[in-house]
Amino acid sequence: MQYPEPVAKLIDSYMHLPGIGKKTATRLAFYTIDMNKDDVLNFAEALTDTKEKLKFCSICGNITENDPCDICADPNRDQSKILVVEQPKDVATMEKMKDYKGLYHVLHGVLSPMEGKGPDDINISSLIQRLQKNEAIQEVIVATNATPEGDATAMYLARLLKPAGIKVTRLARGLSVGSDIEYADEMTLFKAVEGRTEM
Amino acid sequence: MQYPEPVAKLIDSYMHLPGIGKKTATRLAFYTIDMNKDDVLNFAEALTDTKEKLKFCSICGNITENDPCDICADPNRDQSKILVVEQPKDVATMEKMKDYKGLYHVLHGVLSPMEGKGPDDINISSLIQRLQKNEAIQEVIVATNATPEGDATAMYLARLLKPAGIKVTRLARGLSVGSDIEYADEMTLFKAVEGRTEM
């Protein structure tokens, strides 16, 4: 016996999600069958909405319902700073901090020679255009991940933008707040010593 | 900044699933945004279908697209045996074994005094009706889980059905195939010794 077709289809859909294998997908599918109807229909609608209502902001590349996005359209944001991130979710993470009041730019990826991703494959040209069009921008803060690819992308942007007289900065490296020196890896310790600040 | 509304809604929906907290839900939502449109719309449709196309078989209580379900409607199944399980997913699990050719009955729960679940709260009365209507049935195999509630439900069914002259059996207890005696718990070892078979 096969599962009834709607069940098989739902298991298959759950298996498309990262980290979910056949067993978990089956468990989730049977759980879904027992969920109340409204919750399931809301779930289905939320999925459809991501494809039908969400778009990328034509200025910064962040996901948004309105174009330009709420951040780009907000005159109260500090127009002199652009913080560059790899993915839309990084914007949400930075915003949680509630301290940064500037603008964003989403690259939708990083430079990765291993995967054949060059400067033309990520959202860099539109960043250049923003900088050319808008003379208020004084600083570009590169907030790519602390990975080799993130580092390479940061270096690339610094070399590209500094000759144009724009200040390019990177997020500090060091110990995570609350972490033990005992458990820090060597590279992190090295960066923490290198970037030490006076008290 | 809040997430755009469709993203917030999707995170919320993912959080309805068991074992998925806010962080995983957020990760899944952003993953979904990057998935291709067809996969997401299929996923949404699969969810809707579970509520719109699936129903419970009026005979055995299993989930099905057609009523009666494929198993109840199949004249080639052994009409003399009914295997009683707790949940629809247990039917699917038993069917994977490919050896059992009889019919099923899904209780949709177990007796649980702790949760205030008595015989009227699970699908027992329809089992009695099936047995009364169909004289071909000779054996009821109780395949509830090996939990206190599953055991209690099995005992209840045995006491209820045996006086009517129906053979009531339970799945064997013992060592899992491939398991080490070293790691078996005492109850399982006790049941394995008790149920030992001659070679």
From TrEMBL, chains A, B:
GO biological-process terms attached to the record: DNA recombination; DNA repair
Q: Which UniProt keywords apply?
A: DNA damage, DNA recombination, DNA repair, Metal-binding, Zinc, Zinc-finger
Among InterPro entries, the record links this protein to: DNA_Rcmb_RecR, Rcmb_RecR, Rcmb_RecR_Znf, TOPRIM_dom, TOPRIM_RecR
Q: Pfam families per the record?
A: RecR_C, RecR_HhH, RecR_ZnF, Toprim_4
Please report the stretch or stretches of sequence annotated as the Toprim domain: 80-176
Q: Which Gene3D superfamilies is this protein grouped with? A: 3.30.60.80, 3.40.1360.10, 6.10.250.240, RecR Domain 1
A Gene Ontology molecular-function term? DNA binding
C4-type ZnF: 57-72
Superkingdom of origin:
Bacteria
Role played: May play a role in DNA repair. It seems to be involved in an RecBC-independent recombinational process of DNA repair. It may act with RecF and RecO.
Family named by the database record? Belongs to the RecR family.
What this protein is called in its record is Recombination protein RecR
